[in-house]
Write a structure and sequence with these properties.
The chain is mainly beta. The protein has seven helices and 41 strands.
Length: 485
């Protein structure tokens, strides 16, 4: 009997898990499957895809997938509720920990391919205490969308021969805070400099080189870090002309800024030499650099060993698809990966049940209540039995955990389901064909007014704004609707 009971519990757990699109939910307050991200990753099976949802909170931990000696086959997606509110943080630098290796101090280390992250912040909060990595990507095909990577010195390190893509992310630091040898594209990102530093990138020897005979510029194009359509900004306390776009960690380094907007903190020289490293063999280039107002930057004072790219080389040689194919024959399409599902349509609330139309290719949905994660489901409806009213919205979940924009409950009383309530709206005066009670709430669920049972209500008595109303009939039928007054 005990064995049968265990099988039943396992079956029930599998059924419950199958009803929501995430393998695990992490919540620091204990309301999820795990309270730490590392515990959720450890529970994911090798050789399978696992989408982990992380609720708002601060996670003081070092997170690792795989190891330096054993590469993981787990295909992990970390999906945060909000990038400003999901913080993975650690505070050790190499100096403070007494360790010379970045692996020991790094906050998030990825020894696994096909990783995807969205809406999370990864931070090393050691500050100005020396080398202190926040993120290390040690395997191929690492994709980040709408994430923040924060640190001071050596914030982000990428391994040579790997490929990565950052879409609409924030990367912040002071000294060489994007460095090493990966082929990384930063697309429409913000690269923010903080006081006390002076260099953004420090690439090592390029893994791939495009021969100069193939270029219009007649230069070797050493493939490394690419910044396209990025804003290069600084905190308000960073002095003008105090930062450089980069410097060569070794002699065959490469970095490219294409269609970027540069703040006044970027020195007119653009780039800086580093010790005895050979600058003439490096490849540091720009195309169409502007200031933050879109005015073309004067590049006449750039160091002699940097250069401006011709449009033909940018268009024909330096697109991400072309560059990625030069690094590896294994396909990598982060652009499709970053596309969110469609927004749920026809979101409506009948009584306590929220419903919406199915979204093509969605694996499930996240229900938000008052702007916060409330539930997830694979169905196209969800019943809220909490007894607390609120403002609802729904996001679709893609195959890798990508989240859509939110579809909200339809506004306007004209959308009330006529099978329950027949009414006429005369410029804010609602006339029902049967006596009902209207209870008015704020979007946060605070009761502010109750109209007694009647057939007519004057909503013009309310102040202007957004409200939730509960319509209740004599026979016990009740429904919530959002109105804009």
């Amino acid at each position: 009997m005990k064995y049968c009971y265990s099988i039943f519990i396992l079956f029930l757990a599998m059924r419950i898990a199958a009803q929501q699109p995430f393998r695990y939910i992490v919540s620091a307050d204990g309301s999820g499957d795990f309270t730490t991200i590392q515990a959720a990753i450890n529970a994911c099976p090798e050789g399978e895809q696992s989408v982990i949802f992380i609720k708002n909170g601060t996670y003081n931990e070092q997170v690792t997938i795989g190891s330096k000696t054993v590469v993981s086959t787990k295909r992990i997606s970390l999906i945060g509720e909000n990038p400003d509110s999901v913080l993975i943080t650690h505070t050790q630098s190499r100096a403070s920990s007494g360790s010379p290796t970045f692996e020991d101090v790094c906050t998030l280390k990825l020894y696994t391919s096909d990783f995807y992250a969205e809406n999370i912040t990864v931070q090393n909060a050691a500050g100005n205490t020396g080398m202190a990595e926040a993120l290390y990507t040690a395997a191929d095909r690492q994709t980040f969308k709408n994430c923040h990577v924060l640190g001071y010195q050596d914030t982000y390190r990428s391994k040579k021969g790997t490929r990565g893509y950052f879409k609409k992310c924030l990367v912040q630091g002071a000294v060489d805070f994007i460095y090493a040898g990966g082929v990384e594209f930063f697309d429409s990102c913000r690269i923010n400099c903080v006081k006390g530093g002076g260099y953004i990138v420090a690439p090592e020897d390029a893994y791939v080189t495009i021969p100069k005979t193939s270029t219009v510029c007649q230069k070797f194009l050493r493939v490394g870090f690419f910044f396209t359509n990025c804003d290069i900004t600084a905190n308000s306390d960073v002095p003008a002309n105090s930062f450089y776009l980069g410097r060569p960690w070794v002699s065959y380094a490469g970095a490219f800024y294409i269609n970027c907007r540069l703040g006044s903190h970027i020195n007119p020289a653009g780039w800086m030499a580093w010790g005895v490293n050979e600058t003439t063999s490096s490849c540091f280039a720009e195309y169409n650099s502007c200031d933050l107002n879109g005015v073309p930057v004067d590049t006449t004072k750039r160091v002699s060993w940097s250069f401006q790219l011709p449009k033909t080389d940018v268009d024909n040689l330096l697109g991400a698809n072309n560059i990625y194919a030069r690094v590896s024959t294994v396909p990598y399409d982060p652009f499709t990966l970053c596309v969110a599902p469609g927004v749920p349509q026809s979101v409506d609330l009948t009584g306590t049940t929220l419903g919406w139309q199915p979204v093509t290719n969605a694996t499930g949905y996240v229900v938000m209540k008052n702007g916060r994660y409330f539930a997830s489901t694979t169905n196209t409806n969800y019943t809220d039995n909490s007894g607390i009213s609120g403002q609802y919205s729904v996001k679709a979940v893609g195959p890798n955990g990508q989240l859509s924009a939110a579809g909200s409950v339809i506004t306007g009383l004209s959308q009330i389901n006529k099978q329950f309530f027949q009414f006429i709206n005369k410029q804010g005066i609602l006339e029902f064909n049967t006596p009902v009670t209207l209870t008015v709430y704020t979007p946060a669920g605070e009761k502010i007014r109750e109209f007694s049972r009647s057939e007519s209500f004057n909503l013009n008595e309310l102040t202007k704004g957004v409200f939730l109303i509960q319509v209740s009939s004599e026979n016990g039928i009740s429904a919530f609707y959002k109105i804009i007054n």
